[in-house]
Amino acid sequence: MKAKGHVFKYGDNVDTDVIIPARYLNSFDAKELASHAMVDIDPEFAGKVKPGDIIVARKNFGCGSSREHAPLCLKTAGVSCIIAETFARIFFRNSINIGLPIIECKEAAMEIEAGDEVEIDFDSGKIYDRTKGTEYQGQPFPEFMQKIISAGGLVSYTNEKVKSGSN
Question: What positions does the domain Aconitase A/isopropylmalate dehydratase small subunit swivel occupy (predicted)?
Answer without folding.
Answer: 44-104
